[in-house]
Design brief:
The protein has 358 residues and is of the alpha/beta class. It is built from 8 helices and 15 strands. The N and C termini lie far apart (96 Å). 22% of the residues are buried.
């Protein structure tokens, strides 16, 4: 029967036999004292149980993968989605979904939620480690164009697994008010459509050049007129000191006939006619009187504020009315209040329409 020796013992026997074969003599006692001590039985057992280095490295890698799979070790961070936010259907150049943290090994699909084909998310050249460490350096962008307004559920998947989702709101384009041509009405428009969107902020500037001292209170009437128009149109009027920022400019001229003129972006008041003086200021009915020889004349007329209202409504795109009850009647106003045609025009062009979402 052959006898089994540990690997270390076999090596020792081999060395001794080789020394004898080549004529070497065993070391003296002094030489033996300088040699390392022989290993104990425990050392020999440990040597037999030691795992080779390459085998140990392979086992460590397997253990790490298993830990990630079972959730006991940290995995790569999730992708980061930069949502476009609310966009208008007529401004979808801003609708871009950006996905950060995408590596060269990722396989994602993007469903925009409108029934269109899923989009395969572009890969980056980033390694998984870099995508986790510097996600903003590993970003891809996908644009999309929705056919109509609505709310859409956007989903990002890896295979069949959803990894991210959000709601994309596509707002309708704002509507300019237009004059209806399928029904009779007394009022009219200056242009095909209103010059401002519903709920808009309209800035205005008052140019005092050419204004006489007896008209110093005119700007107060502009404030009062615009406050009234804001109530009926839903527009917001804001005074500015910079004429370059103004949507509407109020100014003075010698018109030689009409008390005022109004149009897109401007209102001009006559600097000589009596109606534009402070004597007829405000929005109430004003009484004026004068003598011609032995005759005293008296006249009731809406205050200067209603002249400003009339010309400003022109600047808002509203034309003349055929109804003498309306402030927009082509002749001199006879009432210090809005008529049915005035209210219908402001409601149709502005007040009844939805405010733009953005």
């Amino acid at each position: 029967m052959s006898k089994k020796y540990p690997a270390a013992a076999l090596w020792s026997r081999f060395v001794t036999s080789r020394m004898t074969t080549v004529g070497a003599t065993p070391s003296s006692r002094a030489d033996r004292d300088e040699q390392p001590p022989r290993r104990s039985c425990q050392d020999k057992a440990a040597s037999r149980n030691r795992i080779p280095r390459k085998v140990a490295a392979s086992m460590l890698a397997v253990a790490t993968l298993a830990a990630v799979a079972t959730g006991t070790a940290p995995a790569a961070s999730a992708i980061e989605v930069q949502e476009p936010g609310v966009v208008r259907v007529d401004q979808q150049q801003n609708l871009v979904v950006r996905i950060a943290g995408v590596s060269s090994q990722d396989k994602f699909t993007l469903d925009f939620g409108d029934g269109s084909d899923w989009v395969r998310v572009f890969n980056t050249k980033c390694s998984p480690a870099k995508a986790t460490r510097s996600p903003n350096s590993c970003t891809v962008a996908h644009a999309h164009d929705y056919a109509k307004p609505g709310e859409y559920q956007v989903v990002i998947r890896s295979g069949k697994k959803m990894v991210n989702e959000f709601t994309q709101v596509v707002a309708p384009a704002p509507q300019f008010g237009k004059e209806p041509h399928d029904q009779e009405h007394s009022w009219s428009t200056m242009t095909e459509a209103a010059p401002y969107f519903p709920c808009s902020t309209v800035t205005w500037f008052f140019n005092e050049a050419g204004q006489s001292a007896d008209r110093a209170g005119t700007k107060d009437d502009v404030f009062a007129a615009l406050e009234l128009l804001s109530e009926y149109t839903g527009l917001t009027f804001v005074n500015t000191d910079d004429p370059q920022d103004a949507d509407i400019t109020y100014s003075w001229e010698q018109l030689g006939g009409p008390a005022g003129l109004g149009g897109r972006g401007r209102v001009i008041l006559d600097s000589t006619i009596r109606w534009t003086t402070d004597q007829l200021a405000g929005l109430d009915v004003q009484e004026i009187s004068w003598r011609e020889g032995s005759t005293t004349w008296r006249l009731s007329t809406p205050g200067r504020g209603w002249l400003i209202v009339h010309e400003t409504m022109h600047a808002l795109g509203i034309g003349h009315s055929a109804d003498p009850r309306d402030i927009m009647y082509a002749g001199p106003p006879q009432h210090a209040e809005f008529g049915p045609g005035d209210i219908a025009a402001m409601n149709t062009l502005y007040k009844s329409l939805p405010c733009p979402v953005i």
